[in-house]
C-alpha cells in the first residue's frame, strides 16, 4: 500500500500545478519565470501534503465525517502554504487588495477545489488497492487450498500405496505359506508311500510262506507264522491309521502340533513295526533307552523321522546288529541309531551333515541317498533337530540332538 500511495501522491500532486499552468501563462505570469516556477513548486508541495493528510484522515475517520474533515484539511493547508510562501512566490492571484477574512475564504475555496480532485483520487486508490489486495488474497487462498489438496492427495496416495504394499506383502506371504504347505504335504505323501513299503513287503513274504507251508501240510509252522502275521497286521494297521489321521490335519496344525513325547516309548512303538522285517534280515535289534529322555516336538513328524532311520538301518544290514540309544547330555536329549553293515559313501555323509539342504544338491544326491534320508534331513530341519552321521567299514550311526 505505501508504494502505491507514494506513487499516486506524486502523480496527483504533479498534475494539479500542471493543470493550472496554462491558465497562469495566459495571465502573463510567464514574464516572471522565477515566481512561476517557485509557485508551481509550492502548489506541488501543498497538493502532496493534502494528499497524505486526506489518507491519514480516511484511515481513522469513516463515512461522511472523513470527507468533511478531508475538505477542511485541504482548506487549512491552502491557507498555510499561501501565508507561508506568498512573501516569496505568489501562487494565488489577488488582483485587488482584500481583507484577511476574504483572503482566507478565497484560499479555502482553492482548498475545496483541490479536495474535489484529491478525495476521489484517494478513494479510488484505496478501492483499487483493496480490490488488488483481495485478488492477491484470493490467489493466496487458492494456492493454499491447492497446496492442502495436493498434500491430502499425496497422503491418500501414500496410504493407498502403503496398503497396496501390505496387500502384496500379504499375498507373497500367503504364496510362500501355500508353497510351504504343498511342500510339506508332498513330503508326507512321499513318506507314507515310502514307509509302508518295507512292512508290507514283509507281510507279503509271510503270507507266501504260509501258502507254501499249507501246501506242504506243515500246520504247526503255519500256526506260528499266522500268529506273527496277525500281530504284524495289527501293528501295521495301527501305524497306517495314525499316519492317515495325521495327514488329514491342516498343514499349519501339523507343523504347530507340539506335544511332550517320551522318547523311549516312541522308539519302542516304531521298533515293533519293524520286528518281523528285522528278523527276516537276520538282524537283531537292541534298545538302550534312558527312561528320563523326554522332549517337546511334533509326534507325527518325529515318527516319520524314526521310521525312516530304522528302515534304512535294517535295509543296509544283513545278519548284523541295530542299536538304538537315547540319553540326556547337559539337559539335552540325544538319540542315536547305529547299525553294522556297508559303509555309507562319503558324499552322502557330507551332504547329510551339512547345515544346508539346497534342492539342487538334493536332486544330485537323491539317487545315492534315497528318499528316506532326504525326508529325515528335511523334516529334522522343520523340527529344529540337529542331525549328524558317521560311517566307516564297521558301522554307521545317525545321531539326533533335540532342542532343550
Automatic annotation (TrEMBL):
SUPFAM superfamilies: ATPase domain of HSP90 chaperone/DNA topoisomerase II/histidine kinase, Homodimeric domain of signal transducing histidine kinase
Pfam families with a match to the protein in the record: HATPase_c (PF02518)
GO cellular component labels: plasma membrane
GO BP terms, alphabetized: cellular response to phosphate starvation
Keywords per UniProt: Kinase, Membrane, Phosphoprotein, Transferase, Transmembrane, Transmembrane helix, Two-component regulatory system
Reactions that this protein is recorded to catalyse: ATP + protein L-histidine = ADP + protein N-phospho-L-histidine
Domain Histidine kinase: start-end pairs: 191-404
Record-level Gene Ontology MF annotations: phosphoprotein phosphatase activity; phosphorelay sensor kinase activity
PANTHER family in alphabetical order: PHOSPHATE REGULON SENSOR PROTEIN PHOR (PTHR45453:SF1)
Protein name according to UniProt: histidine kinase
Species this chain originates from: Dyadobacter fermentans (strain ATCC 700827 / DSM 18053 / CIP 107007 / KCTC 52180 / NS114)
